[in-house]
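Open question from group meeting: does this chain pack into something compact, or does most of it stay loose? Before anyone orders reagents, we agreed to write out a predicted structure and look at it together. Recording both the input and the output here so the notebook holds the full record.
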Amino acid sequence: MSTEHHFTFYTHKLGPNGWKAAYVLEELGLKYHPIYLDIKNNEHRSPEHTKFNPNGRIPTLIDHKNNDFVVWESDAIMTYLVEKYDPEGKISVKTFEEKIQQLQWLFFQASGQGPYFGQAAWFIMSHPERIPSAVQRYQTEILRVFGVLENVLSKQEWLVGGKCTIADLSFIPWNAIVFNGLLMKDHEPVDFETKFPAVHKWHEALVNREAVKRVYAMREAVNKTIPAGKLM
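Structure tokens returned:
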């Protein structure tokens, strides 16, 4: 495979998980070549991609400066990048105990936020028939997850280590969709800034980081036909 770029990064123009990993690449100043797979045409399941990622999902990262090492699953990619390319701990922690806490939050994001927020998105925006009980279930879970975060962030500024880490960055894309109002359709109005003030403050601090703003600009550039407020 070509080593012209440090990384080849298989991702998707809209999917939250790819952009999540892009935040880390940008934060660490790492150069990469993005390949935006067309999900509607099943490019993510093509042999050209599944030879690297047998799960056939995005994102997938290939590190050409580490013997074309391949890693997939967004939180695994984020962990790999900081373990190998963040020795100073710019967006990661150093002690064993803190690394376990960082991993704990990544697991919570991958098992508690991503799937439930994703299912809410599916049943609200993509499912062929309206199933109110399913929508209600996942919207209730969104509020529960926000409650967990609020409980912690009302006592501390960041999730672990007293600074922004990959644990915090991992929550941005799905939380942004909630704050945009896309996942609470037909639910009684929720003023997230008032109900979850610590989460709102934390999210605003995250999306105003220079690296995150650069990724937002890239995302808007590759999705020119979609209004910025409707991007995931």
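Observations to bring back to the group:
The chain has a mean pLDDT of 91.
Residues 17 and 175 are 12 Å apart (CA to CA).
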